[in-house]
């Protein structure tokens, strides 16, 4: 009898090391993918921009009148004005102080006081009346006086005055009182030069407009003026020694009254059109618009304005040129060059996180743009 032995065939199973290799590889790949995900999600860029406020001038020309862009009324008038000026090369000299005194008359009859009537202050400083005056009964009158002695002794504060030329009993009924200090004991005088006169004439031309508006109770808002300066006359001659001199002129003033609100609406529209919407934003208006009257037609009642308006603008953080797409994937130096080329920018600081990053994230949510304004 033959007995056969059953032999078991060996199975072809992979070794344990193989499974270890697969497991380790899978773990490494998982860690790498996790690292990539963490890197992508933590990658950030912050762009801090320092921008200054800049003044921008907006200019435009406007027709004024019934057919112009803005309604206006044209008027013309002659305006005579005078003002005092002073020589530049001056010296101090003694002179009689001057001022005014109120003379009271408590009598039931008028009291006449001749020119040079003496008036003595409570401090024994003597003044004299410049002109003959009659003080009404039971009344008073202001008179001009000058100090009897030149110099600073006449520069006194308000005081009571007696009239030595009257009897003792009458001095209690007719007496004086000053309410303003006396002044002029020392005065500046100098020889009027051609340069003094020319400088004063230039200043006169600049002051006429302000004087005209002030005298009429107006302000420059809503009124444009064109002034034709007439011949300016001086009451003193060149070379004459004076403490002051007066210039007088007859000037032709053309005034155009307009609606300032309508003008501002037009200016605002012009400002809006000139702002660079790609990078700028409007902050504020600097002062009132400067309106110059450049042409006038009195027959038709029309005029032409040249208008200048200064406005403050700066960099707009929401502008198209600061959109995130302009920075995504860019290197730090590329971002810096781009930002510094924009108007109103004075500085930029680009921060990447982690710090060893070479480029900005490509994901818009990971980029932050901050604009700090400085004046």
Question: Would you kindly provide a brief summary of this structure?
Answer:
The protein has helices spanning 16-42, 168-171, 194-215, 260-274, 332-340; strands at residues 44-52, 54-64, 72-85, 91-94, 98-105, 111-113, 118-121, 126-129, 133-135, 139-147, 160-162, 174-177, 186-191, 223-228, 232-234, 241-242, 245-258, 280-297, 302-315, 345-353, 367-374.
Q: Can you describe what's shown?
A:
It is a single chain. This protein is an alpha+beta fold and 375 residues long. Among the domains are: 74-89 and 188-258, Dna Ligase, domain 1 (2-Layer Sandwich), CATH 3.30.1490; 96-184, Elongation Factor Tu (Ef-tu), domain 3. 21% of the residues lie in helices and 42% in strands. The chain has helices spanning 16-42, 168-171, 194-215, 260-274, 332-340; strands spanning 44-52, 54-64, 72-85, 91-94, 98-105, 111-113, 118-121, 126-129, 133-135, 139-147, 160-162, 174-177, 186-191, 223-228, 232-234, 241-242, 245-258, 280-297, 302-315, 345-353, 367-374. β18 (280-297) and β19 form a beta hairpin. The longest helix has 27 residues, at 16-42. The mean pLDDT is 87.
């Amino acid at each position: 009898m033959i007995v056969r032995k059953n032999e078991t065939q060996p199975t072809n199973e992979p070794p344990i090391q193989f499974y270890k290799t697969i497991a380790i590889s899978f773990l490494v790949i998982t860690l790498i993918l996790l690292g990539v995900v963490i890197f992508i999600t933590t990658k950030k860029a912050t762009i801090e921009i320092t921008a200054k406020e800049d003044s921008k001038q907006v200019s435009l020309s406007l027709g004024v009148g019934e057919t112009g862009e803005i309604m206006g009324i044209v008027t013309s008038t002659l305006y005579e004005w005078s003002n005092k000026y002073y020589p530049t090369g001056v010296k101090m000299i003694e002179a009689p102080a001057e001022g005014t005194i109120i003379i009271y008359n408590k009598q039931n009859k008028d009291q006449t006081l001749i020119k040079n009537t003496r008036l003595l202050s409570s401090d024994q400083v003597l003044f004299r009346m410049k002109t003959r005056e009659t003080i009404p009964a039971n009344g008073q009158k202001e008179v001009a006086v000058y100090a009897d002695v030149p110099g600073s002794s006449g520069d006194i504060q308000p005081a009571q005055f007696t009239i030595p030329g009257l009897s003792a009993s009458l001095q209690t009924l007719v007496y004086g009182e000053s309410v303003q200090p006396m002044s002029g004991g020392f005065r500046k005088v100098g020889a009027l030069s051609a340069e003094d006169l020319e400088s004063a004439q230039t200043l006169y031309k600049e002051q006429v407009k302000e004087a005209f508006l002030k005298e009429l109770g107006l302000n420059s808002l809503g009124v444009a003026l064109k002034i034709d300066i007439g011949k300016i006359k001086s009451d003193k001659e060149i070379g004459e020694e004076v403490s002051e001199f007066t210039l007088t002129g007859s000037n032709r003033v053309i005034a155009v009254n307009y609606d300032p609100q309508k003008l501002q609406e037009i200016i605002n529209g012009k400002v809006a059109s000139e702002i660079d919407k790609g990078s700028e934003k409007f902050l504020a208006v600097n002062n009132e618009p400067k309106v110059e009257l450049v042409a006038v037609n009195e027959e038709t009642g029309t005029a032409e304005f040249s208008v200048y308006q200064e406005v403050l603008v700066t960099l707009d953080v929401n502008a198209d040129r600061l959109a995130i797409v302009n920075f995504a994937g860019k290197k730090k130096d590329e971002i810096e060059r781009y930002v510094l080329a924009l108007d109103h920018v004075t500085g930029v600081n680009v921060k990447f996180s982690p710090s060893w990053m070479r480029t900005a994230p490509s994901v818009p949510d990971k980029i932050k743009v901050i604009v700090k304004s400085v004046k």
